[in-house]
Amino acid sequence: MMLQSSPTDPLLKVENLVVEYVVGGKTVHAVSNVSLEIARGETLGLVGESGCGKSTLGRAVLQLRQAQSGKVLFDGNDLTAMRGEAMRKMRQRVQLIFQDPIASLNPRRRIGDIVAEPLVIAGIKDPEQRKRMVSDVLTAVGLDPALVMGRLPHEFSGGQCQRICIARALVLNPDFIICDEPVSALDVSIRAQILNLLEEMKARYGLTLLFIAHDLAVVKAVSDRVAVMYLGRLCEVGPSEQLFAKPAHPYTALLIEAIPVPDPDMRPAESVAVGEPPSPIAPPSGCRFRTRCPRADAKCAAEVPELRAVAPGQYAACHHPLT
Amino acid sequence: MSGEALLSVEDVVVDLPTPRGNLRAVDRVNLSVGAGRTLGVVGESGCGKTMLSRAVLQLLPKKAKLRGRVMFDGQDLVSIDWESLRKLRGRSLAVVFQDPMTSLNPVLTIGTQLIETLQEHLELDLAAARRRSIELLAAVGIPAPEQRLLQYPHQLSGGMRQRVAIAIALSCEPKLLIADEPTTALDVTIQAQILDLLAREQRRRHMAMILITHDLGVVAGRTDEVAVMYAGRVVERAPTPALFKKMRMPYTEALLAAIPKLDTAPHTVLPAISGRPPDPTRPMKGCSFSPRCRYAVARCHGEKPELTEAETPAHQYACFHPIEIPDAVPA
Amino acid sequence: MATLELDLAEEAVSAPTRKGRRLGVLFWAAIGWMLFVFALAIFATVLPIPDPTTMDMLERRAPFSALHWLGTDGLGRDELSRLIYGARISLVVGLCAPMIGLTVGGALGMLSGYFGGRFGSFVVGVMDVLLAFPPLILVLAVIAYVGQSILNLTLILGVLGIPAFMRVARAATLTLSRREFVIAAQALGASHARILIRELLPNVILPLFAFFLLGVAITIVVEGSLSFLGLGVPPPISSWGSMIGEGRESLDVAPRLAFMPAIAMFLTVLSFNLVGDTLRALTDPRQGAL
Question: ipTM of the predicted structure?
């Protein structure tokens, strides 16, 4: 039985999620005790560098990855406890868009079939109705159904394939979409097109988005709030403008400062980025960022910092926040 | 612009036969770099920037046909013999590629790869080569260099591997370093470190550098001159400040505008460039950018613009309807 | 407003990756020979050729003539019709045995590659055991036990081929299972069966089919070798292998009796190899495009 939480409750609530897996005998701590909430109609950006666990978190939310502990509540329903038919029904409300648009499409199936697949799985039997729904959604993403439906994925460019993937994600009118690096593999001039498209689709279909990326500027462009992850833990969460204007966590500041700015007058100073991220197999004790943080001290090694409010709506997990 | 050009690419054309027809990867490109200067080459995938770097290094695929001259330090790389070319490569002319996992040999240790290069080009004995390798690894910021000599590429992180690749490239004190998307595969914090490293080494060695990237942000602070490529041609070329402040080519403007920047407010509609890059196997009669250009007029679709000068001879662009000029200027 | 890509019209019409790889003359010659042999085998009974078992003792080892186009063998049987009927046997065994490998091995490979875990390891282990068994000894033992017949021969050769097909299918499935389109299907809530049949099978079937053709070539040779040794199809059924075996006695007088079936076998095996290789080359770089 599916519960419906009240409209003011967050649509997605992740509680103390832990995801670990074993590789070659060693345990990789991909996601360590992450909690977050996404309100209805909001876009939460999740940002971090490679190895921080953001993609794993996205997959774990969708139950595509086994979580060791923790809960994922979608619209009041505990996804971690759902199985079988109930889970399948739930999946129709939550969709996923991937980084590599061409690899996300079965190279041997036609676009019409690929976009219709969610409808078939959902049990929509009438082929005419399916065709109509597929046409509608393809037009919505800016592709001409007549030209597109009979073709194979390799005949399209990266940008077009991503549009097709977005169409596939939208065809069942979901509530929530997780975008896992949707524009990283695309050319710069195409990125803006796809970002605009996502914004437009969000408005049109009333979506809630979790937007995962490593590019801060891209994340800021589409997100209401941003969460920064480092080595499996959340460092900072806050409204986009506020977070970028006044970051509280040293890692956020480091990320912002490292972005190359297309302005020739801003000659980049020698970066304060020190060292390399440690491995998630043996993360540092206490605050995981302490090995690269200029402000680290003994307390940072001893105690794991919790997310604490540093400003209205902004939370940082740091013993010595910047503000 | 100081001094004689160390590298001068003159009217280079690269054609690749493909099952779909002839692909003109590089279409009459002219570029030059002086000693100690950095040239940025910016463009998206398919614009020909990688083929151009391969053409300079004479590392094109077998089926490719190359025309034009590549003058390096007084010699035409296109016409000299294999043996002379081999002596130049690695020694005076070095490369750093995008993916260090594939540009380093995965079955040889770091030490072997470094020492081999040193022995080959500088004819050092093993002990001297080993000492120099340790110095180089330390210079590029790799901690515990003696231990690293015995490690394999897969045991290092991406950033470390790229540093090793840079160390190998710099080992013989090259006069010109070509860095082909050296940081694209790396995280942004590591990217900043690697770019700093390249800039520092370049200043120290008074080395010329060509930095190839798709990221305008990367070239903004770190190059003296920028060339923007589109569909195999150089469409704008200028000293870096002039390119960003006084750009003429609509593509450059559109590219800059389409990048989300940190000071953009969230949810603003980005000025995207409509359409997509042209198919290089189907060359167009007019300007390659015209189908996507908001300033395009009839002339743009019919005729290909040549590079013309802007306010200084150093700033060139190929456009019939450049921006900041109200009426179309006859080329 | 999202920008529309209405210029898709031009790009779409160009229809880029047509399989414009030149399928050379050899490929078409191979296809031609295969079709020719198939046609002869299928229509053998309606062709105006004498019965392959009729012995004409007066015309033994007769040279080419109008009556016997390719002459007769050591027992006066028409060589041409023996070749044609021999083709039937070679093709039946050659096609049916790998078919067993394709279906059983392919299924096992896909399942073990997709599900992995203990089941996958178990399947691979069983296959390894089967592979480790000396095949010739196994064939001899089984035939000695259950008797020589085309059915038994086909079955045993089929079973021996299962591990190879399993490996091909498993390798392809392992690679594909990691690709995002499979994860996308899982994210949509597709059942395992649906993913295996609708997503993975169309991609795995191509390398499997190319391998199948090579398997046919190998099986024809193996059957031929066994029949040559007298361990394959039982007399009086003739296959090319047994004809070569019988032709051994006449090598000094009429070498054509051994060579003609050998040439027929050679050309057929070569054709299957060529077509199989070409198909494999076609299916691999498909994803790599230019």
Answer: 0.80
